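Form 12-C: Joint structure prediction
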Amino acid sequence: MSGFVGGLIWGLAAGTLIAIAALFGVWWERKVAGRIQMRIGPQTTGPAGILQTIADTLKLILKEDITPDQADVRVFRLAPLVVFVPVAMSFSVIPFAAGFAPLDTSVGMLFFLAVPALSVIGILLGGWSSRNTYATIGAIRAAAQMISYELPRALAVLSLVVLAGSIRPLDVMAAWSPWWIIATAPGFIVYFIASIAEVNRGPFDIPEAESELVAGYFADYSGIRWSIFMMAEYGGMVAASLFGAAVFLGGWNWLPGIGGILVFVALTLALVTAMVWVKWTYPRLRADQLMSFAWKIMTPAAIVQLVVVAVIAPWL
Amino acid sequence: MGQDYLTLAMFVLVGLLFSAAAVAASNLLSPSAPSAAKSSTYECGSLPIGSPWVQFRVGYYVYALLFLVFDIETVFLYPWALAFNRMGVSILFAMAIFVFILLVGLVYAWKEGALEWR
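Section 2 - Result
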């Protein structure tokens, strides 16, 4: 029974975390983007515009829920959920504090890489069931991109598994030492770039490019169903930042007790900010550049990183 | 072990309920005034011509094949990484041969132009 209650509490906590992450993330992104473009960003709704996202959410809930005539209704309505649920699941294996992850499983590292990748099924369903040329092209591009960047991401995380000798995130955190940051720096960069591509954010947002595919796979979505897609994007961004801040950058290992949690939060926030920074300062990549970047630079780099780590591991 | 599945099931449930509740709230609160123009397929205002399910370039299929090969490689590498500390230098060479064969595959695909977008 306690397992049920515990699971319920952590599930609800994760749901709340994603909601807060999305609310805060959108506001933070608009603020940072504003500064990058020498604007102020949202400022009238609440202090420093912090209530702007809540106002936007209310607006999206009040918008009409349109399903196109041509669409495959059931699949069309279900697709946002299929995208969102894997992202919610991915929060379960993140080591949030010393000795604690909501789901302390022995295959956590693999779980974190495999489960969010299921979102690609929801994206394909959404794009295909819209019966819209833009959406179909966007969905197929998104699928190609997400599976291509899946590889370097998994290979980059593999370096940590070699160093720690375990795929349980808490074991990796226990074995972690500051030298790993230097040893796995290229792997971390590969992980970071691949994570941006995984959640289809700029400069890797050709599947949902407004100016070319009128928003790609969710071209025909509006109102609340569209915002579930966006929540999945922000949730995925925060999950990738939390995981990267923990296993690559040490997370709460830097300080004992509550100080460690604060360092973990600060590292995560820094990674989220870096993702926003990258999105608003780099031009969008072309579809072919996107694919060749994944296969010709990222994957070989991750393999080289793995070989280097395997050779130097006995001395670390 | 059973508890792990329960925790995971709660995450799935919360994810489902969270999005379902948002949709339900929207359906309760939002207006519903469908019209032919509104529920037509969106193509920047013009009427869609032909089937929306366009044909795809064969390049996507090649990427899918490449992905399959390398994803399985990655899955095989995980048990190797787990055993790495316990098995010493011999396992390093074993994996070097495995990775080398796959890299030859990648170089071959590269040379054949499978990674080019033509």
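Section 3 - Comments
The longest helix of chain A spans residues 2-36. The radius of gyration of chain A is 20 Å.
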